[in-house]
Each structure stands twice: as C-alpha cells, then as structure tokens.
Design brief:
The chain is an alpha/beta fold and about 300 residues long. Helices cover about 40% and strands about 15% of the residues. The strands form three sheets. Strands 7, 8, 9, 10, 11 and 12 form a six-stranded mixed β-sheet that branches. The protein has a four-stranded parallel β-sheet with strand order 2-1-5-6, with helices on both faces. The chain starts with 5 loop residues before the first strand and ends with a strand.
Length: about 300
C-alpha cells in the first residue's frame, strides 16, 4: 500500500502524525504547525486574517469582527493544496478561532482536486477524546499498532502521577487563565488535567468550552494557585501583557499573589494543543501544584513562576 500524502491544518494533528512515525507522509502544514522542528520546511497551506502581534484585547476585537460577518478568520491557500495533491487533510471542528475549521476545508476543496481527498476532522472536548482522535487518525493512515503503543505510553505516564497522588488529600483551588483581555478560564480538557495533577480547577467545567469571566469571579473564589496559559501564547508573549492582570484593582489582595503562587505556562506548545503533548501538560501541572513530589524538568521552558 503506497504512503498517503497528508496535509495537516492543525498543530495537534501534525504532532499526532509525527508521534505515529508517519512524518515522512506529511506534505503540507498550517501556518501554526511548528512542532517537531523538522516539519518547519513543509509548505504552508493557511494564514490568519488577524494581526497575531496585537495585544489580547485587539486580537479579540479583530476575531469577533471577522466572525460577526460570517467569515472565517483563516485563509486556505488553495493553489498550494492543489499542487500538493493530498490524499488526506486533517483539520478540526472544535473551535473557529483555534485553527482552520472543517467548514473552511470543505469549501476550499470543492472541485479543487482531481480526486477525492479524505478529510479527518478532530473535535476533542476531554482527555479521552484526544486518545480517540489519535486512534481515528491512525486508523485512516493504517497505523493502528503505532497508536496503541503511543497511547499505552501516554497512559502509563498519567498513571504514575495518579499513583503518587493516590493518598493525597491536598487539592488546592487552581485558576487556569486562557485569555487575558477579556478574561477567560480554560475549559475543555483542562479541568481534567488539573484534577489528575492533584488540583481543583475553578470556574470552568470539564468538557465545556472555555467561558469568559469577570475578575470579580476570581476574587470571589480566591484560588490558591493561578496559572496563566493564554491560547497561542508563549511564556514570553504572556509576560508582555502581564500588566493587564497586575494593574487590576484587587489583584495584589489575592491569596495566590500574596503567597507567590502565580505561574505562566506555555499555552501554545502545551495546554492548547490536543495532541500527545497533552500529557506533558499534566506533568507541568503536577510540578506546579505538587513541587515536592514531581520534578519532570519543564521549569524554565514549559512554565515559570512569576514573581510580582
């Protein structure tokens, strides 16, 4: 059976394909796919219509304006896709803001190729869905055995954390901030990740979309730990906008601030990506929440403590 030519329009999907040992079959990627490093030379098949260098509030306004006109916030490069002539295109139906959507791909492919390309659309809401998506991609690419081995390794890492915390009653309240202005807390799979890592996620429901909240809600809950993991932001990018929070009236009165329990994680590389590195995200949380029990080596690259 000849290899299938794959275009991935979702960073998590690119990581799944590579983790399955099928990187050589990738022929194109999205503008956001950047891991592993070896895929960066692949042709780019998409771009964003908003200005990614803008601040949080400006990005939010741009995105909402584009979506209000019933337009996609991403552009698909039809000519590049046509020239690559893929057999499989992987995208997502989970969030119009996060990446190129299923609708975008279906419209772009209409009468574009001389053959029918298979579209795999991922829509994870919880951790189990991520493993299900790995299996779905693997099945389409005839890599079921590799998928079971990969998932087995990921589950083993999760079980190590669960086992070490089995008799721990200390479950601090954690606020995971997924956007700074307007403020949003991380939903979807994040509350479950926090729970596995020995914490209690507040203000968001597992499996539900991330909700916008008022700062007053954070003040009322007064979490013991606050972790900033803005969608699409690196640690350095988040540091550039940290004043949005620091300057809020009442920020300095939060217990997490007074006890030096403010952390910044790389949301772009870890928490926002529903691929194999979601288990890295659990390990990052375990290091932050229970530092005496877990040292995986992510501090400094996957997360930092923010000193006010």
């Amino acid at each position: 059976m000849p290899d299938k030519k794959i275009i991935s329009l979702l960073p998590a999907a690119t990581e799944i394909v590579c983790a399955l040992g099928l990187e050589s079959q990738l022929v194109g990627r999205s503008h956001e796919c950047d891991y592993p490093e070896t895929i960066k030379d692949l042709p780019i098949c998409s771009s964003a219509k908003f200005l990614p260098g803008s601040n949080s509030a400006h990005i939010d306004r741009q995105v909402k304006e584009i979506l209000s006109d019933a337009l996609s916030i991403y552009t698909i490069d039809k000519e590049t896709i046509k020239s690559l002539n893929p057999d499989v295109i992987i995208t997502q139906a989970q969030c119009e803001v996060c990446a190129v959507s299923l609708k975008d791909v279906e419209e772009a492919l209409d009468n574009l190729l001389d053959k029918k390309a298979d579209i795999i659309s991922l829509e994870p809401q919880i951790l189990g869905n991520i493993f299900k998506d790995i299996r779905a991609v693997a099945q389409q690419l005839e890599a079921d055995e590799q998928a079971e081995q990969l998932i087995g390794e990921l589950e083993e890492r999760i079980n190590i954390i669960r086992h070490k915390l089995k008799f721990s009653d200390n479950k601090p309240k954690i606020a995971c901030i997924e956007w700074l202005s307007p403020m949003m807390v991380a939903g979807n799979w994040t509350p479950e990740l926090v729970s596995i890592a020995g914490g209690l996620s507040i203000l968001a429901e597992n499996g539900k979309h991330s909700p916008f909240i008022d700062f007053a809600a954070i003040q009322k809950e007064d979490p013991e730990i606050i972790i900033l993991m803005p969608c699409g932001f690196s640690i350095q990018r988040t540091l550039q906008e940290i004043n949005i929070l620091i300057e809020l009236p009442g920020w300095a009165d939060l217990n997490a601030v007074k006890n030096n329990q403010i952390y910044i994680a790389d949301g772009n590389q870890y928490f926002n990506r529903s691929g194999p590195r979601i288990v890295d995200s659990i390990e990052i949380l375990a290091e932050i929440i229970h530092p005496k029990q877990f040292i995986f080596g992510y501090e400094g690259k996957g997360w930092i403590r923010f000193n006010n």
